[in-house]
Amino acid sequence: MTQQLLPNELAVPAVPSATDPQGKVRRRPAAARGKRRAAASPAFVAGSVMLGLVLLLAAGGALLPGYDPFGQNLSAAMRKPFTDPEHLLGTDSLGRDMLSRLSLASFVTLGIALAVVILNAVIGTGLGMAAGYFGGRLDSAITTLADVNLAMPVVLLLIAVAAVTGPSATLTIATLGLTYWVGYARVSRNLARSLRHRDFVLAPLTQGGGHGWVIRKHILPNVFSQTLIIAATDIATIILIESSLEYLGLGVQPPVPSWGSMIFEGQKYLGTNPWLAILPGIVMFLTVAGAQFTSQRFTAEGTTGALLRKGRAA
Fold it and tell me: How far is CA 129 from CA 207, 208, 209, 222, in A?
């Protein structure tokens, strides 16, 4: 018997799918499609290979045969790369093994940059969410603090503090971590401000939920993806800034190596032994370029994921 349809009903013939016996057309979610495209992109593959080489260099230094980045041997000074099996990348002016020093410098520089990015993200995201969610005088105070922070000359501040306490890696982390959080704060503030009047945020408050619980459960998940995007693109900038400070002697102090200090030491021998400055420059290039290439994936996935979370929450 033929089924009778109501006047306001529209009969649409089902189009069977070869992969779905029920005739439903299944599509891959937008986030998964974006992830697949980003994972297959040549830029992401190249960036992953670059970062993989640098991480392997930083993590495998302790496993190198004869690993001693501080051992001096003046009789073996200025060995060229790939000419001595005991020193694969040659030696510096004091006969120290360049491969060992590059490995330790990579570990030190990446550790400092990662610590700075995490500190920036925690401070900036926390202040930004508080300013955008509560608004009022707290918002004005945090916004004013961010504007003052942007007008502060970081290098001059670091020089002034180093003149009193002495330069160190801790000082570099503290100074950069307390001065480069503004970008995180502004993005977090705008997102929290746009979400605080949404129904899924107001509903728990009417049922007795606290502000802390609402921020943790509803505001932070939407802000976190955008914070990850900034962190992925910001780590390259922090590495360049940190290496510049090391070049000026405002970071890790000798004999501990870093990329900036190795370039500073190697520039004295550019005419005769240019590899002393070129090798750490190559490692720095691989890290910065690799971070920029791979950050495109986080940008695509983070934006799509945030939009999907907002849609589900609404």
Answer: 22, 21, 18, 11
Cα Rg of the chain (Å, integer): 27
Domain assignment present for 54: no
Tell me which H or E stretch contains 149.
helix 136-150
How many domains does one find in the chain? 1
45-49 — which CB contacts under 8 Å span 24+ positions?
A: 46/290, 46/293, 47/289, 47/290, 47/291, 47/292, 47/293, 47/294, 47/295, 47/296, 48/290, 48/293, 48/294, 49/290
| Structural domain harbouring 128 | 86-313
Quick: pLDDT tens for 164-202: 888 888 888 998 888 889 999 999 999 999 888 888 888
Domain CATH number, residue 188: 1.10.3720.10
Is there a domain that residue 246 lies in? yes
The full 3-state SS of 200-252, as one line of letters, equals HHHHHHHCCCCHHHHHHHHHHHHHHHHHHHHHHHHHHHHHHHHHHHHHCCCCC
- Whether 38 maps to a domain, the answer reads no
pLDDT digit string, tens, across residues 60-96: 866 666 667 888 888 889 999 998 888 889 899 999 9
